[in-house]
TrEMBL record:
<feature type="region of interest" description="Disordered">
    <location>
        <begin position="127"/>
        <end position="162"/>
    </location>
</feature>
<keyword id="KW-0472">Membrane</keyword>
<feature type="transmembrane region" description="Helical">
    <location>
        <begin position="20"/>
        <end position="45"/>
    </location>
</feature>
<protein>
    <submittedName>
        <fullName>Uncharacterized protein</fullName>
    </submittedName>
</protein>
<dbReference type="InterPro" id="IPR015943">
    <property type="entry name" value="WD40/YVTN_repeat-like_dom_sf"/>
</dbReference>
<dbReference type="InterPro" id="IPR011047">
    <property type="entry name" value="Quinoprotein_ADH-like_sf"/>
</dbReference>
<keyword id="KW-0812">Transmembrane</keyword>
<keyword id="KW-1133">Transmembrane helix</keyword>
């Protein structure tokens, strides 16, 4: 497993790219995470995939992983796609689906552009227009941005809050592991955040989790959302608003054990742990 942090900014816009490196998924944006693994037979079916934050065994390790040791914009890249918005959520993978959470700024004027994929390394992938599962939730376009501060460069007042300036589409996406095309997308919630975030955090930092039957997307103060694998909403829960004015922001990821889904609600108000029936 490789983890690299990369900050990208240009004219206030934010974007990410999802690369597939010789069979391994990578998300590039405010955080770039490369998780490499092979789809060989393991003792447990979950070990074929990357179903949650820190992987199948909760340790950040991909069993029998064998990623390439070199890559670039073209070398060892099977395909790449632009991911609108920003988010630190780990991509989660089940069978052919890669699930991404993103907070997409809502722009003024005109409909958002559709999801697109790009051919790389002689793979015959034409630019495609993804058809959203729910037509009224097409995801916005994104613009590539140059890097700014290097990783590890110290910033003053690291907990400084960035005030919310615009509404966000808190979006769940399923992307094909085979060719990078959009399988489905849904805007779980459209909302202007109630308070700012830490400058190095994102509005979508909680990772999704899947059991192969459901996908659970947690957006903190924007709620918890359950989908089936085809993108159909099943249920949702709103826990209220967190208060993290002096912290590093929201970012707790759900945990799943059998039929029990666990959420930690830790903030500057009354904190709690809640266990929910996943069904």
């Amino acid at each position: 497993m490789f983890v690299t942090i990369n900050t990208v900014l240009e004219q206030g816009n934010e974007m990410r790219k999802l690369f597939f490196i010789a069979g391994f998924p990578v998300v590039v944006g405010l955080v770039l995470i490369c998780v490499g693994f092979s789809a060989l037979a393991f003792g447990g079916v979950d070990e074929h995939y990357w179903p949650q934050w820190r992987g199948p065994n909760f340790d950040g390790v991909a069993p029998s992983g064998d990623p390439p040791i070199e890559w670039s914009e073209t070398k060892n890249i099977a395909w790449k796609v632009e991911i609108p918005g920003s988010g630190f959520a780990t991509p989660v993978i089940w069978e052919d689906s890669i699930f991404i959470l993103s907070a997409v700024p809502v722009t003024n004027g005109g409909p958002p552009e559709a999801f697109s994929s790009v051919a790389v390394n002689n793979h015959a992938l034409e630019s495609t227009t993804g058809s959203a599962k729910h037509p009224n939730t097409a995801i916005a376009s994104a613009t590539l941005m140059p890097p700014t501060k290097q990783r590890g460069q110290r910033q003053r007042r690291g907990r400084r809050q960035a005030e919310p300036l615009q509404a966000m589409d808190f979006t769940v996406m399923a992307i094909s592991r085979t060719d990078g095309s959009l399988i489905w997308s849904d805007v779980a919630r459209h909302e202007t955040p109630h308070e700012g975030k830490q400058v190095n955090n994102s509005w979508a930092s909680s990772s999704a989790i899947t059991d192969g039957e459901h996908v659970f997307a947690f957006f903190g103060s924007r709620g918890l959302y359950a989908y089936d694998m085809e993108g159909n909403p099943q249920w949702n829960v709103d826990f209220g608003d967190m208060r993290i004015r002096n912290g590093f922001g929201e970012g707790t990821s759900p945990a799943l054990h059998e039929d029990t889904l666990v959420i930690v609600w830790d903030h500057q108000g009354d904190s709690f742990i809640v266990a929910l029936d996943k069904n």
